[in-house]
Amino acid sequence: MKTSAVLILYGIVLIIPVISEIHPPHRIFETGSEAVANFSNTFLVADEIFTKTPVIDFTEKYASLPWDFFLDSTVEGGVFFNVNFEKKFRLGVSESITGSGHIKFSKELLELLANGNRDTPDGNNSANILVDARVYSDTSVSFMTFIKDTGIRLTPSLFLPLIYADTSTDPVIELIGDEKTGTTLHGKADMQVYTPFDSNSNIDFGCAGWDFSLYVEFPLGAKMDMGMEIKHIPLASANLRYSSMYSVEYTGHLAVSGLENNFESTLGESSENLNSVLIRRPVEFELLGISRPARWLSFFFSVGLLFEQPFSGYYEFITDIHAGNILGFSLATQFRDKVYSQRIGISLDLRVLEFDIFAASVSGNFQKSFQMAGIAVGAGVRFGI
Q1: Which residues are paired to 21 by β-bridges?
Q2: pTM value?
Q3: Is the peptide bond before 310 cis (omega within 30 degrees of 0)?
Q4: More exposed terminus of the chain, fewer Cβ within 10 Å: N or C?
């Protein structure tokens, strides 16, 4: 009889979720890892790619696209360890690596593909491409406590840019027409790549920077909690002193005899610069909250501002449905880093072990984010007691 009562009580504890915080911990001691990857574009959608005979109407694309188009990719992975002793003492340690790359094409390139050089008096045309790549390592330690019903968390971080690169000059693609020699397509780009690695591939940890984040949350009634966070408040900038030049050049000549191609690329040796690059992560201000109208239903939101050039913002809205505290199902819409995302996720919490997975349709265009112009996937696992 006592055994049955204990089992029933334990089942009730698992079924009834803790609702006094925005992100309540599930375990006292917890460790785990998470990974996310996405690729998106503002040009093509899934129906145009996954067909038996893909056909791209550049004229129609040029007429329907109101601005420049781009490709975007992000990869992130990390590990963490948390200690949660009720509300008085919470400690977290995490290590993550985040990489992103962006290629922006001016609309003139699409015009070039759609109309060729027929509308130019001399038969010549050109378009610009902007490229950047960023890879960061982040080591953070967070401490959180509650004073009455108000939670306060402080998170100092050591961040090290592993790759910081962008085009030193605007790369140009040129289409040059000649009645006698035919048409020539020429493109050239120079990219300055900054790293903390010297010419012997030794890493200089003195290049790292420091910043910290401050978070506060508080209840608004019995079924709603609000929070505010300022992220990446700078303490010291990262200082990259080593760089190398990566150059790419392509020439394609279209004549009566056919297409002649020539592609060349060079990567210069890493060298120490007298003028180093100082890097700070942009300061963010985020307002977030959660409403729980029922034990099995919650609505989460966050909106934020990034204080960078150019100034930008982001948002996220999540609807979460869960069966007890075991199986969860979520739908989310998000905008961040100029990319829209429509996401579906599933979580399985077996108390000692928890799994989370999600998949999303993403794009830099809101309408195309519902049409699989890009895809994002993520997974996480955490375990503890």
Answers
A1: none
A2: 0.82
A3: yes
A4: N
Other Cβ atoms less than 10 A from the Cβ of 88: the count is 9
Q: Which two tokens stand for residue 20?
A: 């006094």
124-147 and 339-349: which strand pairing?
A: unpaired
Cβ proximity of 69 and 114 under 8 Å:
no
- pLDDT by residue for the chain (385 residues), tens only, comes to 444 444 433 443 433 444 469 999 989 999 999 999 999 877 777 666 666 666 666 666 666 666 667 788 999 999 999 999 888 899 999 999 999 998 887 777 767 666 665 555 555 666 677 788 999 999 999 999 999 999 999 999 999 999 998 775 565 666 666 656 666 777 777 888 888 987 777 888 889 999 999 999 999 988 999 999 999 999 999 999 888 887 777 777 665 555 566 656 665 555 666 567 899 999 999 999 999 999 899 999 999 999 988 789 999 999 999 988 899 999 999 999 888 999 999 999 998 999 999 999 998 888 889 988 899 999 999 999 9
Q: Which two tokens stand for residue 186?
A: 């020429």
The letter for the amino acid at 250 is Y
Domain boundaries, the chain: 2-384
Pick the CATH number of 2-384 from 2.40.160, 3.30.160, 2.10.110, 2.30.30: 2.40.160
